[in-house]
Design brief:
Helix content is 35%, strand content 28%. By secondary structure, it is an alpha+beta fold.
């Protein structure tokens, strides 16, 4: 089974405090999450996105991704888990800008 890496560009709202955003991410990481998923927060150190954030999610397989997030959208299991942490997600969305109709992301499958 090849791993999958979800790459999500994150844009903070104007005036959002980066340190508070990083603390919120750390809090969310301690809450646990989807089985087989490992989220990481990265901050651009140089280049076109210097100072901007990216969330990279290491997922153990396509099956582990699709258990929660198939092409059709979040499964009932994922929706139930997100409902249990609604306060966290409300605070998350206070920090980030979601351009257009959704966030900018791509899932990459490891080529073996």
């Amino acid at each position: 089974m090849a791993k999958v890496y979800g790459i999500h560009e994150i844009e903070l709202r104007p005036g959002a405090d980066p340190a508070s955003f990083e603390q919120l991410f750390a809090e969310g990481s301690r809450m646990g999450g989807y089985a087989g998923w490992k989220p990481m927060l990265l901050k651009g150190e140089r280049g076109a996105r210097k100072g901007k954030y990216l969330m990279m999610i290491e997922i153990e397989s396509l099956a582990a991704r699709d258990r929660y997030m198939p092409d059709s959208g979040p499964t009932a299991e994922a929706q139930a888990m997100e409902a249990q942490s609604a306060d966290f997600w409300a605070r998350w969305h206070q920090f980030i800008v979601i351009p257009g109709d959704g966030e900018i992301f791509t899932d990459y499958e490891v080529v073996e």
